[in-house]
Amino acid sequence: MTENRLLTLILGGVLAALPLSSLGGDADKTTAHPLRLEPEKIPYSEMNTDIPPWPEEDILSGVSEHRYKYLYSGDIDVAIYEAKPMTLRIKDYSIDEFVTVVSGTLILTEEGGSPQRFGAGESVLVPKGFTGTWEMQGNFREMVVIMNENRRSQQ
């Protein structure tokens, strides 16, 4: 996956695909079973650090310090992402992304619109084409769900 794809998944985006067998993905359909997702239980120290920083020109405030971990990869990718407080400028978001806030607060402000706040346990769909600001406050952690690009290209 490219750095652009990573940054997209984290707000969403995730870097580097992992083997499906290590993720509980669909490598063996005969053993498919429900997978309990508990993003709040994964320690920060066990999350991946190989994320490049956000481009300086997109950072309105805060520091670009963040980590991620895949929870699942199949037809969809599910990951957790944790970041230090930061506000980003987003222009023409390239994917549809479903987000559930695990901790902290997410404030999305569409260009020309009013801020929308999302706290722990709340979900939002950020549509492809979104332009505005993405603000992460407090000890921010989110679970993100997007279409697996590799799967989409095979359909």
Structure description:
This protein is mostly beta strands. The protein has a single domain (3-17, 42-154), classed as Jelly Rolls, CATH 2.60.120. Helices cover 9% and strands 41% of the residues. It is built from 2 helices and 8 strands. It has helices at 3-10, 149-154, and strands at 59-62, 66-73, 76-83, 86-90, 97-110, 115-118, 123-126, 132-147. Strands 1, 2, 3, 4, 5, 6, 7 and 8 form an 8-stranded antiparallel beta sheet that branches. Strand 2 (66-73) and strand 3 form a beta hairpin. The chain is globular. The two termini are 18 Å apart.
In terms of structural class, how would the helical and strand content be classed?
Answer: mainly beta
The geometry reads as globular
Number of domains: 1
pLDDT averaged residue by residue: 81
CATH topology: Jelly Rolls
- Listing every helix as H and every strand as E from the N terminus to the C terminus, the arrangement reads HEEEEEEEEH
Helical fraction: under 10%
Number of strands: 8
Strand content: 35-45%
Largest sheet: 8 strands, antiparallel
CATH architecture: Sandwich
- CATH class label: Mainly Beta
Low-confidence stretches: 1-7, 9-28
How many helical stretches?
Answer: 2
CATH superfamily: Jelly Rolls
Q: Return Rg in Å.
A: 15 Å
Question: What separation lies between the terminal Cα atoms?
Answer: 18 Å
Notable features of this structure?
mainly beta, Jelly Rolls, 155 residues, disordered N terminus, single chain, globular, eight-stranded antiparallel beta sheet
Describe the structure concisely for a colleague.
The chain starts with a helix and ends with a helix.
